[in-house]
Amino acid sequence: MRRVIYTLALGIFISLSLNAQQRSEDFYYYKGEKIYLQQRKDKIYVKFTSSANREQLRTLSSRDTSLQTYKESLDNVVLRFSVLESKNRNEISSVSIESHKASPDVISVNYMLESNGKLRGLTDEFIVMLKNTTSFSQLEALAVLIIF
Fold it and tell me: Cβ distance 71 to 120 under 8 Å?
């Protein structure tokens, strides 16, 4: 009897462990639902300073021939961000990431995140959507309270 209970308990533990391993530690909430994110280590999100342009991206790209441009955002010739991916779909090395971070034209570099088949970039920005009943001045008042 003990053996049956032990085997059952072990089976439950293994099942829960496997389920926990499938869940990511990265998540966000949307409309009360917890949305899990998986790191895509074959793609990185690079956010640039406001003075960066395409020439800086070319210089950055030429230093690391293992990467290619997947997507980029230009605003009036100013480069806002770029998603770079590994040419061979392998994991992008931490050396490559640190090399990009060292550039004076780069604000941040992070692995891309994926949820429900959609890629998401992690930035240094905090985005807030206000309810119809909340005014911007209320948000500003709250921000002052939090900062000070």
Answer: no
pLDDT per residue as tens digits for the range 85-141:
888 888 998 888 898 888 888 888 999 999 888 888 877 777 777 888 888 888 888
Of 40, 39, 90, 38, the C-alpha closest to 64 is 90
Alpha carbon distance 77, 54 (integer Å): 8
**CA nearest 79: which of 98, 109, 51, 112?**
51
What range does the domain containing 64 cover?
Answer: 2-147
* pLDDT of amino acid 40: 92
Question: Total domain count for the chain?
Answer: 1
What tokens does 92 get? 């992008």
CB 127, CB 120: distance < 8 Å? no
